[in-house]
Write a structure and sequence with these properties.
Layout: H1 19-49, H2 56-87, E1 92-93, E2 96-98, E3 103-105, H3 108-121, E4 124-131, E5 138-147, E6 152-160, H4 174-193, E7 198-199, H5 205-211, H6 219-235, H7 240-247, H8 257-279
Parallel strand pairs: 1-7
Antiparallel strand pairs: 2-3, 4-5, 5-6
Helix pairs in contact: 6-8
């Protein structure tokens, strides 16, 4: 007799599937139903277009009604996915310092590493651009947040030109000022859209207090962490024993989300310091 095919996430020797595999199957079935419904509607439209007895006005109203229903379904899917994504996010560690204002902030790269794996796993994509700004001396940064379900939202941030320092003295070219302002706008929008807070490194206490629990590291963040470790290994070296002792774990799988934030902040700082040393 032939062997019974198993789902890729199904354990060998058991018929039980993981929650992840169940969700994947459900999502596949939903997409299949959507394709079937879309094909059925298209067939009905084609058939109606060749029938002289069909009331075109009535057909247009039905089509608009169908469009409105699909749009509302997409809108609901968008906000449900956004809620799930936000429940997995923890504060981002401020890993850089503005020497002029003496204030700390999180680099765009750090923010991306923290939230991009989460938002993409929930079907989101973010597209940034620019537009004319009505405010003098400002740049407008735009962002379109789209979801695989078909719904999207538009955001803007009007950012002052970063051409001058805190004393008002010009310290950048127009090109550098534009680039700096765009980066700042993207940082602000990303944190604003998904309600991300930026906090000082306090050994993860802030994340634990906010959520009243320190969740285990997610699969997406674990993958990001392993990639960052490899990057640090190649650039400046990485001592696993020292890392595990500092984090009080025996493997990366045992890390929590707040420990992930601390680890990423520490490794990004090491890379930044190494780059400064090479530049000098």
């Amino acid at each position: 007799m032939g062997s019974i095919p198993r789902h890729p996430h199904q354990s060998q020797g058991t018929n039980e599937m993981t929650e992840e595999s169940k969700q994947e199957i459900a999502a596949t079935e939903d997409r299949a139903v959507a394709v079937t419904q879309s094909g059925t509607l298209l067939s009905a439209i084609v058939a109606a277009s060749t029938n002289p007895d069909v009331d075109i006005d009535k057909m247009e109203r039905i089509m608009q009604m169908h469009k409105d229903i699909r749009q509302e379904e997409a809108r609901q899917a968008y906000f449900q996915a956004k809620s799930r994504a936000q429940s997995e996010m923890v504060p981002v560690i401020a890993d850089a310092k503005n020497e002029q204002t003496k204030s700390k902030y999180a680099r765009l790269k750090t923010i991306n590493q923290m939230i991009n794996p989460i938002i993409t796993s929930h079907g989101f994509a973010m597209s940034f651009g620019t537009a004319d700004c009505p405010k003098e001396g400002h740049y407008r940064v735009t962002c379109v947040v789209s979801h695989e379900g078909g719904f999207s939202e538009n955001y803007i941030a009007d950012v002052p030109s970063d051409a001058s320092g805190i004393a008002g003295n010009r310290n950048k070219t127009e090109t550098h000022a534009w680039s700096s302002s765009q980066t700042y706008g993207r940082r602000v929008l990303k944190c604003m859209i998904f309600d991300i807070t930026v906090e000082d490194d306090d050994d993860g206490n802030a994340a634990s207090k906010r959520n009243n629990v320190d969740p285990d590291i997610s699969a997406a963040h674990h993958k990001t962490l392993l990639e960052k470790i490899e990057e640090v290994k190649e650039a400046v070296g990485f001592d696993e024993d020292v890392f595990f002792k500092a984090m009080k774990v025996s493997s990366t799988e045992e890390l929590t989300e707040s420990q992930f934030a601390r680890a990423m902040s520490s490794m990004n700082k090491r890379l930044a310091d190494a780059n400064k040393g090479e530049a000098a």
